[in-house]
Amino acid sequence: MELTIKHKNENKLLERVEVEAEMTYDAVTPSYTQTSEKLSDMLKVPAEKVAIAHIYPVFSYRKAKVIARVYDSAEALEKIEKIKKKPKKSKEAAAAP
C-alpha cells in the first residue's frame, strides 16, 4: 500500500490538520486501522491522534481517495470525533451466560 498526500489544511479552531491523500493498493481496500497506521508513520505522529473520515475507492482501479484528520492531542480527538461503531464482543463473552 502506498499513500501520497495531496492536500493539507490546518484547522486551528478544531486543533487538527485535515489531510487528503491518494492510496494505491494491491489486493482489497485497506482497513481504516491499516490506513491510519500508514498515515501516522508518514506524518510522524502517534496513531491515536489520527482519525480516518472516509476512504473512497475508485471503481475497477486499485486506488482510493482518503480523507483524514490529525489532531494535536488525543483529548481533542475524543472531544470532537464520535465513535460510530460499538466494539465487537468476543466469542467467549457471547457464549457465556
Tags for this entry?
97 residues; alpha+beta
Helix residue percentage: 10-25%
Q: Biggest sheet, strands in spatial order? A: 1-2-4-3
What about the largest sheet?
A: 4 strands, antiparallel
Structural class call reads alpha+beta
Based on DSSP secondary structure assignment, what is the total number of beta strands?
4
**Cα distance spanning the termini:** 42 Å
Counted by DSSP, the helix tally is: 3
Oligomer: single chain
Mean pLDDT: 86
Shape, principal axes of CA atoms: flat
N-to-C SSE string, H for helix and E for strand: EEHEEHH
**Uncertain residue ranges:** none
Commentary on this structure:
It is a single chain. With 97 residues, the protein is of the alpha+beta class. It is built from three helices and four strands. It has helices at 32-43, 74-80, 91-95, and strands at 2-11, 16-24, 50-57, 63-71. It has a four-stranded antiparallel sheet with strand order 1-2-4-3. The mean pLDDT is 86.
Summarize it.
This protein is an alpha+beta fold and 97 residues long.
Would you spell out the secondary-structure blueprint of this structure?
Blueprint lengths: L1 E10 L4 E9 L7 H12 L6 E8 L5 E9 L2 H7 L10 H5 L2
Antiparallel strand pairs: 1-2, 2-4, 3-4
